[in-house]
Structure formats: C-alpha cells, structure tokens
Recover the amino acids of this structure.
C-alpha cells in the first residue's frame, strides 16, 4: 500500500452521509478554553487523521466524542441525529469505540476474555466461552489478523503490535460504526507499525468511520483519506488528503495556516 | 452484526481454517507441544499446581522416611486432612482478596469472632445448631461488608484496615468469651463435622460418582471444543488429568476407609464430614470464579482495574464483594475449627492462623500481586501447611523450630511468586 492520493471507491459508495459531525463545539476546563468552535466531519469507510501539536486538544476532542468530557456548547450529530453524550456508555450505545493509547487490556486474561470484557456472553449465569471464542476468532479473521498464535493466549505474552491489534479488534467486535484510535503506532517498531496501519486501513475498508490520531506524517499520508488539523484548539483545516502535501500539514500543525488554508491570521493571533 | 456487516474479500476464502493463524489453538498431541505449552505458561508467570504438588510429594516422602511407623498410617493421614480443613477454608476466601492484590489480615480473627458467636449461641441460649451456624455465617458476611466498604468505598488501603481490625476483632472475641475463658462446643452436629464419618459405602459411592462426573464433564468439554474447532488441550493432557484426579480421589477414599481405630474392640473408618464440606465449597467457588461473569470480573479488576472500569465493570462492588466472600469463608473456617477442637477460646483464630492461610494460598500458586490464583490453590497449599505441621509434630521438634520452618516456607513461596511475576513482566519488554 503506497501513497493513496485518489482512492478508487472499491465497492464502497463515496463518502456518502457523514457518520459524525461536530458543529461549533466548545470545551473549557475551568477558565482555560481548550476547544474553540470545532467543526469536524467524519465519513464511513474513511480514515480521518486528526493531527496537531502537543496540547492542541486532540485527546480532549476525542474524549468529548467518547462522552468522557461532555461538550460545553455546540452540536454533536451522529448519523444525522443530534445526540447528547454524557458518559462512555452513551457513546458505546451509538457504536462509538475508542482505543486509548494505554490500550486498557488486562494482562492476566486471554485475548477472548479481553475482547469481551464487561460484555460477556452468558447462558444463564454461565459464561458462554464457546460462542465468545468463535466470535473473537471470526472478527480477527475478518480483519485478516494472522499474527496471533492462539486466541487463548494471555495478553501478557503478546508483543506491542499484537496488543494494539487485540485492542482494535475489541473495538470492532461491537458493531461499532466509529472507531477512534489515539496514537496507535506511537510505541511500535517498523514491522508492527506496518501491521497496525494495514489494520486501520482494513477497518475503513470494512465500512467503519475511523479517526486516527498521529504525530507521524508518514503514517498519516499512508493511511488517511482526510486530514483534520487542530491548532490551539481550533480546526485549521479539514480536507481530503490529496488536496494537501506533507509540508502544508506540518505548517498547519505548527502555525495554524498554510497558503490559503487555515485559520485567519487575526483569529490565530487571538488564540495565542 | 447488522447494519455494519464486515465484508472483506479475504473473509470468504478461509472461515477459521488452519491457514488463518491461531495454529496454537489446536496443539498437536505431541509431548513436545505439551512441554512447550507449559513452558509458555511458566514464562507468563504461572507455575500452575506444580510447586505445591512437588511440595506435597517431597514432604510426604521426607516424613515417611523420618517417621516410617507413624506418618503414613490411616489414622495420621485422617488427622492430617482434618487439621488442614480450617486453614484451607480460610485460604479459599483469601484467594478472592489476593486476586485483587488486596490482603485481609483480619480473616483469622474474624473466624474467631464467628466461632465465639456460634459457641455462645449453643452454650448460653441453647439454640439449635443450624441457628448458631446461620448466625456465625451471617456475622462473617456482615464483617466482610464492613471491611469491604472501608477498603472499596472509603478507600483505605486494605493492609491498614485489616491490621486495625485484626486488633479490634480480637477484643470482641475476648469480650464474647471472657478473659481466660473457654466455651465448650458440645453440639453433636457441630462436633460431627470434624469427628464423625460418612458410612464407608457412601464414601465410596460419592468418590466414584465424583470421578465419573469429572471425567464426563472434561471429556464432553473437550469433544465439543474439537467439534466446534475451538481452542482445546491435547487429549493426552485431558486424560492424564482425569487419571490423576481419579487416583487421588479413590486413593484417599481407600485410605480413609481402612479401620484406623487404635483398639481392636471398636471400628473407626470412613471419610470425615469435613472433607466433603471442603470439596463442595471448592467446586462451588471454582465454578463462581471460573465460569461466571462475576469471576471473570474479579480477575479483570485484579489484572488491570482501570481497564475493568472502562469496560463498565463496577470495580467498587467487586472490591467489596471479595471481602464478603473472605468473611463468609472465615466464618465457615471458624465453625470447622470449633468442631475439631470442641471449644472456642479468646485465642481462636489469632496467632498464626492467618499467616498459615495466606501461606496456603501463596504456596498453592496464588499471587500476592493480584490477578493470578485459583480456589484449588488453597487446598493444595493447605495440605502442604498441614503436612509440615503434622510431620514436625511427629518429629517432636520444639515449637520455635516449627515457627521458623513454617515462616521459611511462606517466604520461599512468596519469593517464587515474586520471581515468576518478574519473569512475566520482563518477558514482554
Ligand atoms: N482535565 C483537564 N483539566 C484541565 N486542563 C486540561 C485537561 N485535559 C486537558 N487539558 C488541557 O487542554 C489542552 C489540550 O490537551 P490535550 O490532551 O487534548 O492535547 P493533545 O492534543 O492530546 O496533546 P498530545 O499530542 O500531547 O497528546 C492542554 O493545554 C491541557 O493542559
Ligand atoms: Mg493526547
């Protein structure tokens, strides 16, 4: 998979109607306003890269979408309906799954047990291990994950890339429509980054809307369909990846502006 | 999966076939694969039952050699099993607390409080045995709720809470029994738990049924896993485990069915009621921990509390509940101890009771760091502790040596635990 300037719509309808739309979202922590009038559109079947410098507000933005930090004002529209997210469960019910950077896997449980953690299938009071194992295996197979020796392996025995894979597969298991990945390749080597990027691409190809946070421009240009750049809590650009190049994105991240893209200089100044 | 069906070109060609990875799930029935499987587990920090089983065998041989006339007799082996019961029951409840990486230092003296409640109800008010038992068990549960709330809801470290309660509950027992007092327990049912036996024929019947049930369940599970192409163990392992369990159950039954009376005039044979009591609780708690959502959540909270919280598990509820289980098991342990000794004193459950129980769980393979352990660890470790106490008693060693040796064994087990854990964490990096 090389640079993907113009993705042929391989069986997928074009962008279509967005899975998630943020309209004028604001968020403050006390006196500090972290998100300013954020507009963001995320489409099914596409990877939207969310980029921005440290402290730009990326994690805050996804926590708002995940219902962890509800927004102060502005609209969150999910599949055309305005929604109010007051907790992680609200988001999960809509089909929003977040893979946090620390993954949140229990080392002492195996792959299947982790994938179903908190949502175990049961027959009466007894855990239905067979059906959970089957479903976990099917999900991993559909994502073409071939690096696991066994789905009954303890997570403590997995490599960093395999753990990331399990965390992503866990998110996909739940009829999720929007999968948010916070720096999934940050701690990985070359080969494992490759695996995870392939997996991210496959997520989108299987119809999910994907938000992919990364500081790595190579990864972003390799896997993303759209790029959204945050600059000091404002959206500097939200464009298809083939309309910008790497230097422009770096400029958007560091200065909030690049050519005719980006925040009006006056606004950008005011934000500092 | 409706609405968002996953469709990929790759999904059609290999629906869970061997070529799709996971080849480790259907391990070959070869010795090599079995050994590799165990080595993998050890790498993951799980030594399984091996250390405790080795301990039982080595200590058994040692004491048999040192005391050939007395150690391996039916009478002594029966005593040994009955001695192990209170410690084992206490340790079974502690396994739940240890699984969360918490500790309950007060569990021993809680068993004393509950035994005092039992004894006073029987002696003072002449209550029927079942009322006294219910009251004792309810006391243990309530104490567990109290301890668990202080740890889980108020958020005091369990070490501090239970250290304070270790002192506090001893005072309560002293108040209930009276300074220097001893309340005898003469109820035939309560005394019978440790001192009466099942009829020999019934013992054999239950033993055979138990073995058949175990074999049937294990084989049925293995067959259905194979049929549905799920992860399964090699058949050799399953059969070996069944044979081992059968040998142990039938062997113990045979020993306990020999007439062990010291005089030829009377006959004393059969399984003491305390043994099936432990077995029933072992099965019930193993089921709870291994086969229910609750048990899964206990492991999850012990392994990664933050992950469990994000998965929607009520971590506080789990935290409180393990102390309730420990308190309940402490009560049952206190009843068993009162039954064996025939009395309750202010010192009941104090002294080294708790240390022995923690030692039993850890020797059996339960980790002090949380996340790893099984109920059966308490039984295996309880046997090791009982063999040491019993064997040293037969050797007539002085009390000071007894303390030093048992303390040393606990330290050894804790070191093995810490080293296994360190291997597990370094193996991943
Ligand atoms: N709970 C909070 N309370 C107060 N301020 C917060 C809180 N969370 C985040 N912030 C502030 O909001 C700003 C944005 O933080 P955020 O974590 O969203 O940045 P980020 O884009 O994810 O950065 P990084 O790339 O370093 O992860 C920072 O200035 C941070 O200090
Ligand atoms: Mg962040």
């Amino acid at each position: 998979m090389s640079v993907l300037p113009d993705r042929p719509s391989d069986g997928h309808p074009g962008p279509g109607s967005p899975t998630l739309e943020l309209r004028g979202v604001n968020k403050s922590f006390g006196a500090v306003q972290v998100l300013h009038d954020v507009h963001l559109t995320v489409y099914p079947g596409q990877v939207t890269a969310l980029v921005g410098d440290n402290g730009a507000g990326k994690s805050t933005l996804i926590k708002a979408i995940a219902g962890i930090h509800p927004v102060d004002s502005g609209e969150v529209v999910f599949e055309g309906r305005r929604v109010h997210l007051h907790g992680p469960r609200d988001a999960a019910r809509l089909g929003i799954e977040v893979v946090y950077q620390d993954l949140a896997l229990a080392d002492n449980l195996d792959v299947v047990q982790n994938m179903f953690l908190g949502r175990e299938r049961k027959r009466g009071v007894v855990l239905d291990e067979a059906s959970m194992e089957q479903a976990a295996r099917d999900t991993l197979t559909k994502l073409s994950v071939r690096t696991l020796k066994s789905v009954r392996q303890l997570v403590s025995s997995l490599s960093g890339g395999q753990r990331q894979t399990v965390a992503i597969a866990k998110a996909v298991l739940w009829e999720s429509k929007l999968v948010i990945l916070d720096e999934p390749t940050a701690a990985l080597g070359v080969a494992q980054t490759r695996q995870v990027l392939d997996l991210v691409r496959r997520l989108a190809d299987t119809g999910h809307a994907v938000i992919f946070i990364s500081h790595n421009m190579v990864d972003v240009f390799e896997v993303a369909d759209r790029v959204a750049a945050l600059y000091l809590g404002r959206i500097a650009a939200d464009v298809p990846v083939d309309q910008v190049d790497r230097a422009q994105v770096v400029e958007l991240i560091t200065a909030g502006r690049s050519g005719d893209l980006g925040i009006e200089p006056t606004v950008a100044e005011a934000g500092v | 999966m409706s609405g968002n069906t996953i469709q990929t070109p790759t999904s059609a060609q290999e629906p869970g076939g061997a070529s799709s990875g996971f080849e480790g799930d259907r391990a070959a029935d070869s010795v090599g694969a079995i050994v590799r499987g165990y080595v993998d587990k050890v790498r993951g920090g799980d030594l399984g039952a091996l250390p405790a089983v080795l301990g039982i065998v080595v200590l058994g041989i040692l004491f048999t050699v040192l005391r050939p006339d007395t150690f391996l007799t039916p009478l002594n082996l029966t005593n040994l099993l009955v001695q192990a019961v209170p410690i084992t029951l206490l340790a079974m409840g502690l396994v739940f607390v240890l699984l969360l990486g918490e500790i309950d230092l007060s569990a021993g003296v809680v068993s004393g409080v509950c035994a005092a409640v039992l004894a006073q109800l029987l002696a003072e008010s002449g209550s029927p045995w079942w009322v006294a038992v219910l009251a004792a068990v309810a006391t243990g549960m309530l104490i567990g709720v109290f301890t668990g709330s202080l740890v889980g809801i108020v958020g005091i470290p369990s070490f501090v809470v239970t250290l304070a309660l270790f002192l506090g509950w001893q005072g309560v027992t002293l108040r209930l029994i009276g300074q220097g007092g001893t309340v005898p327990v003469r109820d035939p049912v309560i005394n019978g738990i440790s001192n009466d036996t099942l009829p020999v024929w019934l013992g054999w019947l239950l033993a055979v049924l138990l073995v058949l049930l175990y074999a049937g369940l294990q084989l049925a599970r293995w067959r259905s896993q194979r049929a549905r192409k799920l992860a399964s163990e090699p058949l050799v392992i399953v059969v070996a485990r069944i044979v081992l369990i059968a040998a142990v159950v039938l062997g113990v039954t045979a020993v306990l069915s020999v007439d062990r009376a010291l005089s030829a005039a009377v006959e004393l044979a059969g399984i003491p009621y305390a043994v099936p009591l432990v077995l029933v609780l072992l099965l019930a708690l193993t089921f709870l921990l291994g086969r229910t959502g609750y048990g899964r959540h206990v492991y999850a909270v012990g392994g990664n509390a933050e992950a469990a919280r994000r998965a929607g598990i009520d971590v506080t509820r789990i935290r409180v509940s393990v102390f309730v289980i420990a308190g309940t098991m402490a009560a049952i342990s206190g009843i068993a101890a009162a039954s064996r000794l025939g009395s309750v004193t202010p010192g009941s459950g104090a002294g080294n009771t708790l240390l022995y129980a923690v030692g039993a769980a850890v020797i059996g393979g339960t980790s002090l760091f949380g996340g790893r352990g099984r109920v059966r660890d308490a039984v295996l470790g309880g046997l090791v502790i009982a063999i040491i106490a019993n064997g040293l008693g037969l050797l007539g060693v002085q009390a000071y040596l007894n303390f030093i040796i048992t303390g040393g064994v606990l330290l050894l087990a804790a070191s093995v635990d810490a080293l296994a854990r360190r291997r597990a964490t370094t193996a991943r990096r």
Remarks:
- Chain B touches chain A through 51 residues (CB under 8 Å).
